[in-house]
Amino acid sequence: MQLAHSREADAAGVTLCRVNSFYPGEQPLPFWRHIPYSFQEMDPRMLAAVSRPHWRPAGGAAAAGGAATPAAGGAAAGRAADEPEPLPCRWGYQWSSVVCEGSRYLPWLTAQVEAMGGVLLRRPRLSSLEQLAELPEVAAGGGPDAVVNAAGLGNRELLPDEQVVPIRGQIVRVRAPDSVVLGGTGQVGNFSREVCPEDRSRILEGCARLLPSLAGAEVLSDWVGLRPGRTRLRLELQEGGLRLPGTGEDGGATGGGGGGRGGREVPLVHNYGHGGAGLTLAWGCAGDVVALLQRSGVL
Predict the structure, then answer these.
(1) Would 254 disulfide with which of 34, 122, 262, 291, CB 3.0-4.6 Å?
(2) Are 90 and 51 in contact (CB under 8 A)?
(3) Which residue intervals are annotated with compositional bias (Low complexity) in the record (predicted)?
(4) Inside any domain, residue 172
């Protein structure tokens, strides 16, 4: 929230917005309702506006005796004849939140890390954490003081962890008249990174049912991504840590990170399985990682 009110907000792609959640019937209030600003149940007038209670199918329904309703032969008052059927929005809640555009936020965050002296290195894909020992800077004994595993979906192969599954998301960006994101999907176990025409149609049709002015909006782009899902978020300090080349307990230089018990043991923190809530949980989970490293004596 502080970032959204700062001079860095535009560069970081962070802005405030009002969020509306609609349901066909009353639901238990979310456990997190005390966290965001201005949480409240939906005003009945908003529900009436969204559900459009006077909507009738194009052409109208036959009244008793075969007479047509006023909708027959034309549009009902206040709507187009081809206006899509509204969604059953009979209950909901709203709150103030923050929108974070990942394509702008991640480069901004990277720049913050580099400004504080952090160095980002690209290395060949690893098939196991033990392969860290084979990297030149680690094999020479100048490796890290700790390792944080934030490999997300890659942990299916890296560890391996069979509890990690992809949650496929697809969204559509349209012009209406500004750039608006519509969607999306949450398909557990779907590895496809290709745009699915059927998903696009469902997204466009569903959003038009909620906001008829979106019908016929120009499609600007599609986007597909895989969220790193897991049966349960894993955030923990691994017992035994990770053994890397370096100075052993006897003070002698040792090598080989995968075989034997030579080298040095460094703390290993696992932080993955956030699903579609990565940006939401990032700062809180990062704080927990720091606390775990402090407990291990690294910080």
Answers:
(1) 262
(2) yes
(3) 58-79
(4) yes
Q: Which residues of 266-283 are buried (b: 16+ CB within 10 A; e: fewer)?
A: bbbbbbbbbbeebbeebe
d(CA 18, CA 30): 17
Please tell me which residue, 58 or 27, carries the higher pLDDT value.
27
Rounded Cα distance, 63 and 71, in Å: 11
What is the DSSP secondary structure assignment for residue 243, as one 8-state letter?
Answer: E
**Contacts (Cβ under 8 Å, ≥6 apart) of 101:** 13, 14
Domain that holds residue 17: 1-55+78-120
112 close to 3: Cβ distance less than 8 angstroms: no
Give the pLDDT confidence of 54-76 residue by residue, as tens digits.
887 766 553 343 333 444 444 44
- Tracing tokens 């043991």 back to the chain, one arrives at 265
Same domain as 246, residue 139: yes
Residues 149 and 253 in one domain: yes
Phi-psi region of 296 (alpha: psi -120 to 50; beta: other; left: phi over 0): alpha
The Cα–Cα gap between 123 and 139 comes to 14
CA gap 274, 226 in Å, rounded: 12
C-alpha 73/C-alpha 67 separation (Å) is 12
